[in-house]
């Protein structure tokens, strides 16, 4: 996809229903750290990712530590969306969370009713029905897309070696 919002993007869907869909781009890190957005957070070195082009002035998070953060919604095996943000700030301020447990996003990716289904019918997206939660929280933004594409099997693995802009090849 040549749209710069989604070029070589790995998106984790957090919600999919008849009303539409929502998710976060996992591999587009911004230049901001959490402390740039939340000055009352002492550990500012947690990266913030571009969740997508919608509502970039909002902050969202996913995590894999429900024993530390209450109220999250399990969206996949051991991956939770949201939760008690006061607990999150306290855990960060006391150095009890690291970037392998939580990921923050400015904005989100959203699709209106039927929009994502139409894009899937046009083969705009490649869908993975399973993945390793370690990949979601890995700090390997540059390799994540490639690793995910290769994990889809031989039908797609060759795409991982394509240049970003095939016309420059």
UniProtKB/TrEMBL annotation:
Family annotation (Pfam families): DUF179
Family, similarity comment: Belongs to the UPF0301 (AlgH) family.
Protein name as catalogued: YqgE/AlgH family protein
């Amino acid at each position: 996809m040549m749209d710069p919002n989604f070029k070589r993007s790995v998106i984790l869907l957090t919600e999919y229903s008849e009303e539409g869909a929502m998710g976060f781009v996992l591999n587009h890190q911004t230049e901001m750290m959490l402390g740039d957005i939340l000055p009352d957070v002492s550990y500012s070195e947690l990266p913030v990712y571009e969740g997508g082009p919608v509502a970039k002035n909002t902050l969202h998070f996913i995590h894999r530590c429900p024993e530390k953060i209450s109220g999250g919604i399990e969206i996949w095996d051991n991956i939770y969306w949201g939760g008690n943000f006061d607990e999150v700030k306290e855990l960060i301020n006391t150095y009890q969370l690291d970037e392998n447990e939580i990921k923050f996003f400015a904005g989100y990716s959203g699709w209106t009713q039927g929009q994502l289904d139409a894009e899937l019918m046009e083969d705009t997206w490649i869908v993975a029905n399973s993945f390793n939660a370690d990949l979601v929280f890995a700090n390997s933004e540059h390799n994540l897309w490639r690793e995910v594409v290769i994990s889809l099997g031989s039908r797609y693995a060759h795409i991982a070696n394509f240049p970003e802009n095939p016309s420059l090849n």
